[in-house]
C-alpha cells in the first residue's frame, strides 16, 4: 500500500489564483496591498525565502519592498525602520525575517510592529487574540497546514491531531488552529515519553521538529494524514523534511512533499494576510472619513 502524495503545487496555485482575483478587485477601487520584508544579515537560506516572498507578491499583484540590512545593524536602527513602515500607508504588512542577529532582541522588535500590520501573527496581542478566538491574522505556516487539510478533504473535527514540536512559530499556534477546527489535539516535544506510541494515535500528524527525516513509519498509524513542516538541508545538499518520506509513504494515507507544499503554502498565507490587512486599513480609512464629516 502506498500513500497519496499531497499535490501542494495544485493547492498553492488555486489559493493564489483566488488571492490574485481579490487583489485585482481591490485595485479597481484604487487600493493596492503592500508588504515590506526586512532581512538583517546575509544568511543565504533567508535570502532565498525573502526573494521567494517578493516574487510571490509580484505574481498576485501585491506591492512589495525588501530591506536588506547588514548583520551589524544596531537594534535602534531596525526599530527606526519599523517605525517608518508602521506609519507608511503604502505598507499594509511588515515581516521581519527571523532569526535576527544575536545583538538584537527579537521580542522587542516584534513588539514594535504595528499590530494591524503584523502579517506573521507574531505580536503578543495577535497571539492572544488567536488564543481566545478573536479575529486576528492567522499565523502563516499553521494556517497553510489547515488550508491543505481542508483542500484535500481531510476531516478535522473529532479527529485526533498530534503536533510534534512546540515552537512559538509553528507548534503552539498549530495546536490552537487545530483546536479551533474541533480536533482533539496532543502536542509532543523533546521531553515527550513514548513519542512513537503517542504519534501512532494520530489521524492527523503535523511534524515540526527541525530534524531531517526523523519521523519514520514507527510514528505513523496506517492511513494517517502526515503534514511535514520541516525543511532541512541534508549532507547530500538536498532539501528534506522532518519526515522520512519514502518510509512513511508505505503506511500513511497521505503525505505532503518537501519541498513543494507547506513552504509555498506559508508564503501564500502571508499574501492572504497582507490582502486582509489592506482591506482592514481601507475599512478603517472609510470610517475615519465618515467620522470627520
Ligand atoms: N518573520 C518570519 N516569517 C516567516 O514566515 C519566516 C521567517 N521569519 N523566517 C524563516 C522562515 C522560513 N520560511 C519559509 C517560507 C517558505 C519556504 C518555501 O517556500 N520553501 C520551498 C523551497 C525553497 C527552497 O528551495 O529553498 C518549498 O518548501 O517548496 C521556506 C521557508 C518562512 N519563515
Ligand atoms: Mg520544538
Automatic annotation (TrEMBL):
<dbReference type="Pfam" id="PF00763">
    <property type="entry name" value="THF_DHG_CYH"/>
</dbReference>
<comment type="subunit">
    <text>Homodimer.</text>
</comment>
<dbReference type="Pfam" id="PF02882">
    <property type="entry name" value="THF_DHG_CYH_C"/>
</dbReference>
<keyword id="KW-0486">Methionine biosynthesis</keyword>
<dbReference type="GO" id="GO:0000105">
    <property type="term" value="P:L-histidine biosynthetic process"/>
</dbReference>
<keyword id="KW-0521">NADP</keyword>
<dbReference type="InterPro" id="IPR000672">
    <property type="entry name" value="THF_DH/CycHdrlase"/>
</dbReference>
<dbReference type="GO" id="GO:0035999">
    <property type="term" value="P:tetrahydrofolate interconversion"/>
</dbReference>
<dbReference type="GO" id="GO:0004488">
    <property type="term" value="F:methylenetetrahydrofolate dehydrogenase (NADP+) activity"/>
</dbReference>
<dbReference type="InterPro" id="IPR020630">
    <property type="entry name" value="THF_DH/CycHdrlase_cat_dom"/>
</dbReference>
<dbReference type="GO" id="GO:0005829">
    <property type="term" value="C:cytosol"/>
</dbReference>
<keyword id="KW-0368">Histidine biosynthesis</keyword>
<dbReference type="GO" id="GO:0009086">
    <property type="term" value="P:methionine biosynthetic process"/>
</dbReference>
<feature type="binding site">
    <location>
        <begin position="165"/>
        <end position="167"/>
    </location>
    <ligand>
        <name>NADP(+)</name>
    </ligand>
</feature>
<dbReference type="GO" id="GO:0006164">
    <property type="term" value="P:purine nucleotide biosynthetic process"/>
</dbReference>
<feature type="domain" description="Tetrahydrofolate dehydrogenase/cyclohydrolase catalytic">
    <location>
        <begin position="6"/>
        <end position="120"/>
    </location>
</feature>
<dbReference type="GO" id="GO:0004477">
    <property type="term" value="F:methenyltetrahydrofolate cyclohydrolase activity"/>
</dbReference>
<comment type="function">
    <text>Catalyzes the oxidation of 5,10-methylenetetrahydrofolate to 5,10-methenyltetrahydrofolate and then the hydrolysis of 5,10-methenyltetrahydrofolate to 10-formyltetrahydrofolate.</text>
</comment>
<dbReference type="InterPro" id="IPR020867">
    <property type="entry name" value="THF_DH/CycHdrlase_CS"/>
</dbReference>
<feature type="domain" description="Tetrahydrofolate dehydrogenase/cyclohydrolase NAD(P)-binding">
    <location>
        <begin position="139"/>
        <end position="281"/>
    </location>
</feature>
<keyword id="KW-0028">Amino-acid biosynthesis</keyword>
<keyword id="KW-0511">Multifunctional enzyme</keyword>
<dbReference type="InterPro" id="IPR036291">
    <property type="entry name" value="NAD(P)-bd_dom_sf"/>
</dbReference>
<keyword id="KW-0560">Oxidoreductase</keyword>
<dbReference type="InterPro" id="IPR020631">
    <property type="entry name" value="THF_DH/CycHdrlase_NAD-bd_dom"/>
</dbReference>
<keyword id="KW-0658">Purine biosynthesis</keyword>
<comment type="pathway">
    <text>One-carbon metabolism; tetrahydrofolate interconversion.</text>
</comment>
<dbReference type="InterPro" id="IPR046346">
    <property type="entry name" value="Aminoacid_DH-like_N_sf"/>
</dbReference>
<protein>
    <recommendedName>
        <fullName>Bifunctional protein FolD</fullName>
        <ecNumber>1.5.1.5</ecNumber>
        <ecNumber>3.5.4.9</ecNumber>
    </recommendedName>
</protein>
<keyword id="KW-0554">One-carbon metabolism</keyword>
<comment type="similarity">
    <text>Belongs to the tetrahydrofolate dehydrogenase/cyclohydrolase family.</text>
</comment>
<keyword id="KW-0378">Hydrolase</keyword>
Amino acid at each position: 500500500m502506498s500513500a497519496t502524495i499531497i499535490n501542494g503545487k495544485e493547492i498553492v496555485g488555486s489559493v493564489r489564483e483566488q488571492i490574485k482575483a481579490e487583489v485585482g478587485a481591490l485595485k479597481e477601487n484604487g487600493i493596492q496591498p503592500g508588504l515590506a520584508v526586512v532581512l538583517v544579515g546575509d544568511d543565504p537560506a533567508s535570502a532565498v525565502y525573502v526573494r521567494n516572498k517578493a516574487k510571490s507578491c509580484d505574481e498576485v499583484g501585491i506591492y512589495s519592498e525588501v530591506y536588506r540590512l547588514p548583520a551589524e545593524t544596531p537594534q535602534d536602527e531596525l526599530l527606526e525602520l519599523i517605525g517608518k513602515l508602521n506609519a507608511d500607508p503604502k505598507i499594509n504588512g511588515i515581516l521581519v525575517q527571523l532569526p535576527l542577529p544575536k545583538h538584537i532582541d527579537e521580542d522587542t522588535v516584534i513588539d514594535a510592529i504595528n499590530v494591524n500590520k503584523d502579517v506573521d501573527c507574531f505580536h503578543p496581542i495577535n497571539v492572544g487574540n488567536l488564543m481566545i478566538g478573536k479575529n486576528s491574522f492567522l499565523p502563516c505556516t499553521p494556517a497553510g497546514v489547515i488550508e491543505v487539510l481542508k483542500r484535500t478533504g481531510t476531516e478535522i473535527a473529532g479527529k485526533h491531531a498530534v503536533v510534534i514540536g512546540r515552537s512559538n512559530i509553528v507548534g503552539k499556534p498549530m495546536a490552537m488552529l487545530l483546536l479551533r477546527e474541533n480536533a482533539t489535539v496532543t502536542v509532543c516535544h523533546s521531553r515527550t515519553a513514548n513519542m512513537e506510541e503517542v504519534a501512532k494515535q494520530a489521524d492527523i500528524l503535523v511534524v515540526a521538529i527541525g530534524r531531517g527525516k526523523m519521523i519514520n513509519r514507527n510514528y505513523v498509524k496506517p492511513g494517517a494524514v502526515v503534514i511535514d513542516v520541516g525543511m532541512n538541508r541534508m549532507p547530500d545538499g538536498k532539501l528534506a523534511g522532518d519526515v522520512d518520506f519514502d518510509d512513511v509513504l508505505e503506511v500513511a494515507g497521505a503525505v505532503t512533499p518537501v519541498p513543494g507544499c507547506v513552504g509555498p503554502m506559508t508564503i501564500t498565507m502571508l499574501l492572504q494576510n497582507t490582502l486582509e490587512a489592506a482591506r482592514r486599513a481601507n475599512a478603517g480609512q472609510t470610517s475615519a472619513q465618515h467620522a470627520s464629516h
